Each structure stands twice: as C-alpha cells, then as structure tokens.
C-alpha cells in the first residue's frame, strides 16, 4: 500500500499525520469535508491497551510502527517483525525501529513477570543461583553460582554473545 497517499511522517515526534483527502476518496464531497475537518493534519490513530499505536484505514487496523517502517524503508518481508530498540511501544521514531525475527524480538523483551530473582535469566535452584539462556529454541544452562550477581554476569555475557545487538539483560 502507498502509505504516503494517506499520511506524512513526523520524524521529530515519531507520529503519523493524516493528510488532507480529496473528494475522490469518498462517496460524496460532504463526507470528505467532514473527514478533513476532523482529521486532516492531526496525529493518526489511537493507543491500544497493549501500548501500540494503531490506525484504521479503509476498514483495516494497522500498527503505526509498521507503517512508519515501510514509509521509510519499503515493504517488510514476510515473517519479519519490527522491533522497538528501547522497548517503548510509543516511541515510533525511525531510529528506534529495526527489523527483527520473532526470536530476536523476544531477545529484546524484559524479564518475565513471574521472575522472582529480579534478574533476567537468573533463578534460585537448590540454594544456588542458576543462569540460563534460550538460543535457537535450546535452553542453555550457564552454570550455578554462589551469588545472584555472578549468575547475572554470566547471563549478561551469554546474552551479548548469543543475542548480539538484540541482547537485553534487564
């Protein structure tokens, strides 16, 4: 879809802005006037409960960050996600977006809500701190340590080694 026909991208805010639409996009010109009065030159979309900004266009809902990526970089290949580097779903500045596989997108996720140690990849196991990391669907045990700090360092090193730029240790 040619997103440029409907939106402009404000790089300073990371927002999509509705363009004014001609009568030819509507059943009647009075619909166009009403729509343009209410929407033209205003921020497009709304924020869902999950934190993503979405826009409705031609009866479909689209995530704003995916539109922004395509406006700046072209079509997103099948099976590719667009990741927010800083994990802030409201920050749709192009510098904060990057292509990622589903696995890479998960690497950039925070610690799980059920995590009781407070450190990603670290858990208490029989009075020792255990560090683990997932790599290509395989659970790799990094060792058991006398301190939570030592286990955290082991996880951080492994995350950088295996997950590269997508590593997230907190």
Describe this structure in a few short sentences.
With about 170 residues, the chain is α+β, with helices and mostly antiparallel strands. The chain contains four helices and ten strands.
Structure annotation, total helices: 4
Radius of gyration: 22 Å
Class inferred from helices and paired strands: alpha+beta
Average residue-wise pLDDT: 93
Task: Show unreliable segments.
Answer: none
Strand percentage lies at 25-35%
Strand order of the biggest β-sheet? 3-4-5
Count of strand segments:
10
Please describe the biggest sheet, giving its number of strands, its sense, and whether it closes into a barrel. Answer: 3 strands, antiparallel
Q: Which shape, going by the Cα principal axes?
A: elongated
What string, H for helix and E for strand, traces the elements in order? EEHEEEHEEHEEEH
Beginning-to-end CA distance, first to last residue: 37 Å
Helix content: 25-40%
Could you walk me through the main structural features you see in this protein, from its secondary elements to its overall organization?
The strands form 4 sheets. This protein has a 3-stranded antiparallel beta sheet. A 3-stranded antiparallel beta sheet has the order 8-9-10, covered by helices on one side. It has a two-stranded antiparallel sheet with strand order 1-2. It has helices at 29-39, 64-73, 102-107, 148-163; strands at 7-10, 15-18, 46-47, 53-57, 60-63, 81-84, 97-100, 122-125, 128-135, 138-145. It is built from 4 helices and 10 strands. The model has no long low-confidence stretch (mean pLDDT 93). The protein is 25% helix and 28% strand. By secondary structure, it is α+β, with helices and mostly antiparallel strands. The protein is elongated and about 70 Å long.
């Amino acid at each position: 879809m040619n997103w440029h026909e409907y939106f402009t991208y404000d790089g300073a805010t990371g927002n999509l802005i509705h363009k004014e639409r001609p009568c030819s996009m509507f059943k009647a010109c009075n619909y166009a006037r009403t729509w343009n009065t209410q929407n033209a030159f205003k921020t497009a979309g709304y924020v869902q409960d999950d934190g993503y900004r979405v826009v409705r266009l031609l009866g479909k809902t689209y995530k704003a960050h995916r539109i922004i990526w395509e406006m700046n970089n072209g079509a997103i290949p099948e099976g590719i996600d667009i990741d927010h580097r800083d994990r802030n779903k409201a920050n749709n500045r192009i510098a904060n977006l990057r292509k990622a596989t589903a696995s890479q997108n998960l690497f950039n996720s925070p610690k799980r809500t059920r995590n009781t140690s407070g450190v990603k990849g670290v858990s208490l196991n029989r009075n020792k701190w255990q560090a683990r990391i997932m790599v290509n669907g395989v659970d790799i045990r990094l060792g058991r340590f006398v301190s939570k700090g030592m286990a955290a360092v082991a996880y951080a090193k492994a995350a950088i080694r295996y997950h590269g730029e997508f590593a997230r240790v907190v």
